[in-house]
Amino acid sequence: MTDVRKLPRHVAIIMDGNGRWAKAHALKVAMGHRKGVEALRGIIRESSDIGIEALTLYAFSTENWRRSEAEVSALMALLLEYFSSEIDELDEKNVRIRILGDKQGLPAPQREAIEKAEERTKENGGLKLNIAINYGARAEILSAVRTLAQKAKEGEILPEDITEADFSAALYTRDLPDVDLLIRTSGEMRLSNFLLYQCAYAEMVFPKVLWPDFTVADYHAALDSFGARDRRFGGRKE
After folding, report:
1. Distance between CA atoms of 152 and 215, rounded to whole angstroms?
2. Residue 232 pLDDT level (bands cut at 50, 70, 90)
3. How many Å apart are CA 1 and CA 156, to the nearest integer?
4. 105, 176, 214, 227: which could form a disulfide with 6 (CB 3.0–4.6 Å)?
5. Could you tell me the pLDDT band of residue 6, with boundaries at 50, 70 and 90?
6. For the whole model, what pTM was predicted?
7. Cα dist. 226→7, 9, 108, 223 in Å?
8. Which of 213, 227, 184, 203 is nearest to 2 (CA)?
9. By the 8 A CB rule, do 193 and 137 touch?
10. Residues 115-159 pLDDT 10s
11. Cα separation of 83 and 174, whole Å?
12. What is the spatial distance between Cα 87 and Cα 33, in angstroms, rounded to a whole number?
């Protein structure tokens, strides 16, 4: 069992491999995404139960709109289905939901569903579940720069007085700790425009298992890997 004293505060997951899982099982890609949601349920429950402070999931990137119309439609439908079927349990477990990304760029039904989920759970004090939808890290950073530039233009802050804390407060992840552990399934080893600023000192684990086959045991293996690492944040132990 994972040593709870060595748990990361903030875990981020790139849930990769749904399409390859579907192909390997001779199924449509939509079925891979559906199977991926089943895997997700267990990881969220376990994160809540063992006391992870924040869990951030890469659900749909700004680049994912380039996928086929059929796949995008299936993902949007699954998004609605997820919030409809899971919101009661998440609320009961005291989970707080936050959406990271450009919500205004989503279709109206999906935007309304996620805004209702955020509103319903905003006072919850348990696991902070952040779901990155229509998200891109470069766009997030650019948005933060524009926010601070506008404040400087209006005389609210001097450019030379802008701190890292000011910049962090202009990001979607304001009030969250930086990412301690990044997990990307399927064996791919890249960030894919996900939390580029927040992952500055993240430990990274790249299990080869495809996301729909990622189990709670696999999750604990990643957590154990994190707990065994010596994090120095650029310093050196003598």
Report:
1. 48
2. confident
3. 50
4. 227
5. confident
6. 0.94
7. 8, 11, 39, 5
8. 227
9. yes
10. 999 999 999 999 999 999 999 999 999 999 999 999 999 999 999
11. 23
12. 19
Whole-angstrom distance, CA of residue 97 vs CA of residue 118: 5
At 7, the amino acid letter reads L
Please state, in angstroms and rounded to a whole number, the distance separating the CA atoms of residues 68 and 182.
Answer: 28
Q: Which amino acid is at 50?
A: I
> Which are the catalytic amino acids?
16, 64
**CATH assignment of 7-136+178-227?**
3.40.1180.10
State the angle between helix axes of 108-121 and 69-92 in degrees (0 to 180), rounded to the nearest 10: 20
- 37 three-state secondary structure: helix
Query: Which amino acid, one-letter code, is at 204?
Result: M
Both tokens of 228, joined, read 């065994």
Residue reference for tokens 């399409």:
19
How far is residue 177's CA from residue 53's CA, in Å, rounded to a whole number?
9
